[in-house]
Amino acid sequence: MEHFVTTVALIGIVIIVASLLSGALERTGAPLVAVFLALGAALGPYGLGVVDIGLASPALRSLATLGLALVLFSDAVTIETTKVREHKRLTWRLLGPGTLVPAALIAAAAWWLLDVPVAAAAILGAALASTDPVLLRSVLRSSALPATPRLALRLETGMNDVLLLPIVAISMLFL
Question: Which end of the chain, N or C, is more open, meaning fewer C-beta atoms within 10 Å of its C-beta?
Answer without folding.
Answer: N
